[in-house]
Amino acid sequence: MYKYLKHILIYNLILIYSCTDKVKEPTNTQQANDNKNFNTIINGFNKYIEKAREDLNKHEKDKRQLQNYDDYKIAIDKYDKFISWIEDNPDTKKELDTDFTEAYNCLEQRRAENASEKTLDEYIRDAIDCTNNPLSCKDTRKKYGTKNNQIFLFFTYNFHTLFHSKNTLKDILVKFKTLDISEVKDKF
């Protein structure tokens, strides 16, 4: 009898002590993944813009001659204004996150097939870097596309389509919602 009373007493003490612990609020995994698609695509565009800015700086220092220098400068300024505008409009940002799902999934599929050891952001960054420094990269055709670096072409084509034309921010937004993923989807 005492044997069972000891067990009951121990279980009651455990129950009492466990009830005094503060309840941990479950973290919302959806909240952690908010804007994941948007952030990944924008990081790719930011990396592309970083390369374009380097080219502009080289042109200004007479280290490299750029055709359409003024067009590049205007397009980069337009991109910066667009990103600032998007950051000030969280609803639009969330809407773009939803619209980027197909492009994100396609890029993620390519990354999983060709560079599973990297995150998607690293994969995109490396693809753009490989275009800038082709001698430092090996097997880029295998990793980033069959004929060319399709990941780089995806960002290049969409950047030029969106920001080199004379569009307002709202026109850019409409086009931005339907990114052309044919470079990554069909030609890989």
TrEMBL record:
Membrane topology: Lipid-anchor
Domain of life: Bacteria
Localization: Cell outer membrane
PROSITE patterns: PROKAR_LIPOPROTEIN
Matching InterPro entries: Mlp (IPR004983)
GO cellular component: cell outer membrane
Coiled coil region boundaries: 42-69
Keywords linked to the UniProt accession: Cell outer membrane, Coiled coil, Lipoprotein, Membrane, Palmitate, Plasmid, Signal
Function field: An outer membrane protein that may participate in pathogenesis. Some human Lyme disease patients have antibodies against this protein. The Mlp proteins probably undergo intragenic recombination, generating new alleles.
Protein family: Belongs to the Multicopy lipoprotein (Mlp) family.
Official protein name in the record: Family 113-like protein
Organism annotation: Borrelia duttonii (strain Ly)
